[in-house]
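tool=predict chain=A
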Amino acid sequence: MNALSPDLEIWVRLGSFALMFLILALAEVRWPRRQRNFSRRQRWATNLGLSLANSLILRLLVPIAGVAGAVWATGRDVGLFNLLTLPPWLEIALFILLFDLTIYGQHRLFHAIPLLWRLHRVHHTDEDYDLTTGNRFHPLSILLSALIKLALIVTLGASAVAVLLAELILNLMSMFNHSNLGLPRAVDQILRAAIVTPDMHRIHHSRNHTEHDKNFGFNFSFWDRMLGTYLEAPEGSQESLVLGVDGFTGKTTRAISALLKQPLHAPSIDK
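tool=predict ok
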């Protein structure tokens, strides 16, 4: 279950990211949901540049995160799964569910605690919405998230394969549900019964405080339904939804240097 070399892990991650990015980028051009407010050029350079920096920082500061953490835990028989005798498929399925529930809980926590919201707010100050928004996070937010995931991995003693699959699903779904892809309503409703769709998650990026405190899920939509944070539709239409955070507009939302300093600044309206 843990026969997974670092080189293979990197290529699997890069290959899946590149393929999903290409598919969604083309789909956004062919079937856009909303008219763009800004050109792709600066937003993509900023959002993807920040994502690349986060990946490098994470590898440097938390080298045992993710799959490496799983290899460490299972190699020492640490964690709940190593005390149980479960079929590999069941262990993987349970970990993916618990991993996603943890991400949902973390997301709510990052909205509820003012200091954490200052970090997470970088993700929300994007005034447009496309697949690159799903890669836009402050480095300190990414580091905290990595530590939370590592704690879960070690506590459960998840296998490397389970961790890799869970993280791949999270990364690919983050691009999908942040995409500017216009799905037919019938398709959206069918998919939304199980997973988070772009129309569902876009509501969470509304400037309206009621709306952006709903639809916290990243992968599975049923956590929001079960825990009372689901919102079917915004007050207006998806096309008229105003995105971002009050008090942050213009260049301060579209430059890496500004995003890195953003948590130090309080807007006119905050948590």
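Residues 9 and 62 are 16 Å apart (CA to CA). Residues 6-30 form the longest helix (25 residues).
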